[in-house]
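Thread: quick sanity check before group meeting

JM: Hey all, I'm pulling together slides for Thursday and realized we never actually wrote out the predicted structure for the chain we discussed last week. Dropping the sequence here so it's in one place. If anyone has concerns about the input, flag it before I start.
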Amino acid sequence: MSARLIASSGSSTLDQAALEMARHASGRPLPPEMGSSASLKVPVRYSIR
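JM (edit): ok, ran it. Output follows.
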């Protein structure tokens, strides 16, 4: 799986954490009718306290 940022959060630490989260996400295999790849946009919100 590959992952990329569409927009930076302004923090390289948070950007890297979001990419790591995406890379470690696991899912089920795609149904055969979808082919071998899919593209998803996943918004990530952080709250720093």
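AS: nice. Residues 12-24 form the longest helix (13 residues). The mean pLDDT is 85.
JM: adding both to the slides.
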